[in-house]
Model the fold of this input.
Amino acid sequence: MEQPLYLKNVWYVAGWSSDIKRGDRIGRTFLDQPVVLWRDQQGTAHALADRCAHRAMPLSAGVVEGSAIRCPYHGLEFGGDGRCTRIPAQDRIPDTARVRAYPLVEQQGLLWIWMGDTGRADVMLVPSYPIHEDPAYAWRSAHFPVNGSWQLLVDNLMDLSHLPYIHAKTIGGNPDLHFRTKTQSEKLTNGVRVIRQMPDSEPPPTYVDAAGFTGRIDRWQEIEFEPVLIRIHTGACDAGTGAYEGRRDHGFSMRGFHGITPETATTTHYFWSMATNILRDGIPDEVFEQTARTFREDQEVLELQQARMSADPDQPMIDIASDVGGRHTRQFISRLLREEATERLAAA
Amino acid sequence: MEQPLYLKNVWYVAGWSSDIKRGDRIGRTFLDQPVVLWRDQQGTAHALADRCAHRAMPLSAGVVEGSAIRCPYHGLEFGGDGRCTRIPAQDRIPDTARVRAYPLVEQQGLLWIWMGDTGRADVMLVPSYPIHEDPAYAWRSAHFPVNGSWQLLVDNLMDLSHLPYIHAKTIGGNPDLHFRTKTQSEKLTNGVRVIRQMPDSEPPPTYVDAAGFTGRIDRWQEIEFEPVLIRIHTGACDAGTGAYEGRRDHGFSMRGFHGITPETATTTHYFWSMATNILRDGIPDEVFEQTARTFREDQEVLELQQARMSADPDQPMIDIASDVGGRHTRQFISRLLREEATERLAAA
Amino acid sequence: MEQPLYLKNVWYVAGWSSDIKRGDRIGRTFLDQPVVLWRDQQGTAHALADRCAHRAMPLSAGVVEGSAIRCPYHGLEFGGDGRCTRIPAQDRIPDTARVRAYPLVEQQGLLWIWMGDTGRADVMLVPSYPIHEDPAYAWRSAHFPVNGSWQLLVDNLMDLSHLPYIHAKTIGGNPDLHFRTKTQSEKLTNGVRVIRQMPDSEPPPTYVDAAGFTGRIDRWQEIEFEPVLIRIHTGACDAGTGAYEGRRDHGFSMRGFHGITPETATTTHYFWSMATNILRDGIPDEVFEQTARTFREDQEVLELQQARMSADPDQPMIDIASDVGGRHTRQFISRLLREEATERLAAA
Done:
């Protein structure tokens, strides 16, 4: 049984709420399926197959009219449920005149789409990210295209041991500190958690600049994967003030949200936000810009890595000690992919 | 029996006479076959396979010498019949030194090529288009590349119900008028004719500008397909002056010629001309420019449509009422394609 | 038994010594294999598979550190023998942590790589080119990418009868002279030699400019193929002064080195140098520039030719009289390719 490329029955990030204004529409591909995201004039966002039932024209080239989206070619209109609501110069609308509607949920600044079996879409399972609504945090978001598979992006984020190399010029900091830091990886019911702690260490320059540390600090990196997003909490408190006992509000916190949505087998939508509890002027520009610069470095790495893997996909690869978090995540994802494949076989 | 992609035994437009000057040559692909079109120094146009018999070099990269075209690599020369007429530093020219010659006919400003069985090329069957020689008309021509299959372009032209949508800004005019207009489609011996009439209607702005109508008009749209070109006659007379009884010379006529020649399965040569009987200053610039702008809108639509269909060719499509002309034409073309496939099977 | 695309067990030019400075690295593809060429801080050049054993990252995106090259992603380091010498945050280095090392020899300004069975790489078989070290000669080199197969480039160089056509504006000269010149082709133990002589002929303009001939000359063109490079010696002496009896030092000599290394099935690395015994100011700029311009014309030809052959690889081609040298070379190469295929079958 060959492993499928994608998890189907999960909620994926389809975009940021701010990506589509009222009456606007945008075409995106998820899991090889072209989708049009659009917001009707009442403000509700919808997701439909981006292909008119009549002559295959992309609806995303059309316009939103009231509570429908209109195909630009012959003027057919479709509602949020995918049913055709109007065929010009024709009275009866046949039942076959419809396009697939994908469940779409909007919450906490995010649009979540369900690309799998519609009957199994459960809005209670939409991942929660309260940081986006927490007044203690300021945040900014971005959408990066990645020319690499979604699993390579997961690997990249679950194993921060690449920081001193790729990101030597930005957030890398002292390589030796990274090497001496133990990585603990823990399997969760629906995911994997990786924890790295750097107690009583020198604060890196950005921490000093952003949070004003003057002495040594207790630092942490906490990475949590669930299908298919990653939450990364990094930060520090003054050394010995309770960072590892759960008292962190007095310290400096950077919260990274990483929505990872496959576009095709070798390209990925990367929706990320960065939040800090430094509220002086919203999230400090330098923190956001540095993060964006860092992720652009990762984009380049993943593209090069994907090129090699596409050219010779079966060549074996070795694991190293710092892969533990990435390896646990790979195993967990493989199990889910196998389960979905088995279910589909049983259903067929 | 899978349906072939192209009709082979028909005359296709290869270009405009004005495309190749005396002593000049141009490389074009028709039905996946690279062809060099060239005009010898006596003025006769020829079409040969665009690949030297010796080392596969495109002859279109060479030069015309007298009554031959010379390969740029090693200097072999070929006449209009495809036979090699000269091999440098060699006396004998073997009989195998030849390239395929395609029948080519030049008339009424057009070059017509026969890509099928040479023995069946009948010059009496070359489609006639006397408008190009009629002193009552002025015309201008163009060659547009289309990133869509030839059948999508045929669909587009046989069903003008897309006018109020794609061409809302140019020739679309009042959508309601279009919706209320009945479309009559009629099967002909060798084609399909679609007729739409708009009696006693308001003249659209271009009609007023170009022809000076001051009152209501009797309008018509007449579209005729034969393999593989489309003639479209649109126009109007003052209401009640005989437009529908064949008396039209006193009115305004726009005559569109649409030569549709497959380049590959998903790209098409679109050779079109627009003629009017307004002779004040040749064809009015605004009519030609508006037509060109309109067809560029169609180019964009067909490219988007083709992308979706190529990505998922087997997904079903629904028909709507206004498709009647396009549907008749599809059926007629399918019959011809099947007939050609059956003939080839019988011959094999 | 289908003929393989490439000869494997031969030394190929991988580049010019001057292509990689100490501590530098460059990624190139040879015979479809990505290779990183790098020079350690001691000055020795190495060739490794350009794909980290860990996560497939191209090592050519990394940096040279001392006597190792470091992967830019997670910092693994590899020595010239392909063994991993360092894994960050890990003590033991497993034996599987290695990448393929390709034998690389540097001599006479050239880097030679062995892409075949490593056990059969014999440094005594590296082709010799003493002209690059001969004080009687000045030379300059270049690296041209060619969008055509390596065999098309071999054909091009073994049959100079294309000179009066493609290179009419540069080194072509009088076409009639070329046509009257007999081409002798001779099979060697490990190659093919083609000789053309033009005794008592007019010197072409470049010869007059570069060497100052005032009367008639004895010209020669001597082309020698061995797998897979071509040496071309062209030149002239004053007529009747012994050019054809081996006394040429008093004349004008142009020595062309042509290293031909397949990149992929349809693209080729073309490493060439041009040397002359005119030492006034090194190799005359106009000779080098004219040669480069000439080879750029060949690049265009091969790209067009390859496009036609890729589109229809099985269409037959005819041979002409002047192909004799090219034909002998094709036959010789085919024999070597068959021998390698047979050996591989026997070994399997």
